Amino acid sequence: MVDPEQAVRAWEAEGVYRDLTVGDPPRRQRFFTVDRAAGRSQMLEPLVVIHGFPTSSFDFHLVIDELSRDRRVLLIDLLGYGFSDKPDLAYTIDVQADAVAAFVAELGVEELALLTHDLGDTVGGELLARQMEGRWPVRVSRRLVTNGSIYIDMARLSTGQELLLSLPDERLGPDAPINADGMTASLSATFSPEHAVDPGELTALWTLVARAEGHRNLPRLIRYIEERRRNERRFTGAIEGHPSPLSVVWGIDDPIAVSPMADELCRRRPDASLTRLEGVGHYPMIEAPVRFAAAVEPALG
Question: pLDDT at residue 91 above 90?
Answer without folding.
Answer: yes
